[in-house]
C-alpha cells in the first residue's frame, strides 16, 4: 500500500476563492453487509495551516492509531459530526439514498453546533455526488477522487466516521457475538458468512444485501 500524507492544498485553494470554510466528507461502511452506513464531516478554515501528525485516510491506519487520532482530530477541526443510516434504511432506500440521508443527518448536527452550512464548500470523497439529490438545496458540493488520501479535511472526516462506526459494531458484537463483528465490523468475511449460514441473519444485517452476498 502506498502511504500518502494528505495536505490542505485544495482546502486552501477553495478558501482563497472565497469560501469561509470547507467541510470534508467521507463515508464508511458502504460495502458492509451489517451495521449502519456512516458519513463523517470535518470542518476547516483559514486558520488551519498545519495538519495533525499521523493524519491519513482511515484505511491506511491501524485501529489503534485511528482511535488515538480521534481526540486530536476533534480538537483540530472547527467542528465534526457523524451521521448514520440504519441497516433497514439501507434495505428500504438503497445505498446511495442511505448515504445521502446519513450525510443530511451529519449536516444537521453541524448546524446544531452553530455552523452556517450554506456558506461553505462541501468537499466529498469520490466521483459521485450523493449529497445534492438528498439535500435538494443549492449547497456547493465538490467531489474529489482519492480525496480521503489527498485532502486533510476528508481524511479527518474518514477517521472520525470509521472509529464511530467501529465502536457501534463492537457494541453489536457484545449482543450477538456469533458473527464476529468485533473483528470484521460487519463486512463479509468468511467467518461472518459462515455464521449467517449457521445462525441466520441478525437485526443488524442488511437483508437485501445477503441475497446477493
TrEMBL record:
Q: What cofactor(s) does the depicted protein rely on?
A: Mn(2+); Mg(2+)
Superkingdom assignment: Bacteria
**Is NAD given among the entry's keywords?**
no
Q: Which UniProt keywords apply?
A: Cytoplasm, Endonuclease, Hydrolase, Manganese, Metal-binding, Nuclease
Instruction: State the reactions this protein catalyses.
Output: Endonucleolytic cleavage to 5'-phosphomonoester
Which parts pass through the membrane? Answer: none
Q: Name one GO molecular function term.
A: RNA binding
Q: Name one GO cellular component term.
A: cytoplasm
EC number from the UniProt entry: 3.1.26.4
> Which note does the record give on the cofactor?
Manganese or magnesium. Binds 1 divalent metal ion per monomer in the absence of substrate. May bind a second metal ion after substrate binding.
Q: Which SUPFAM superfamilies match?
A: Ribonuclease H-like (SSF53098)
Location in the cell reads:
Cytoplasm
Segments forming domain RNase H type-2: 20-213
Q: Which GO terms describe its biological process?
A: DNA replication, removal of RNA primer; mismatch repair
Q: What is its main location?
A: cytoplasm
Residues annotated to bind a divalent metal cation: 26-27, 125
Q: What does this protein do?
A: Endonuclease that specifically degrades the RNA of RNA-DNA hybrids.
Family label: Belongs to the RNase HII family.
Q: What protein name is recorded for this chain?
A: Ribonuclease
Origin organism of this chain?
Answer: Paramicrobacterium agarici
Top-level taxonomy: Bacteria, Bacillati, Actinomycetota, Actinomycetes, Micrococcales
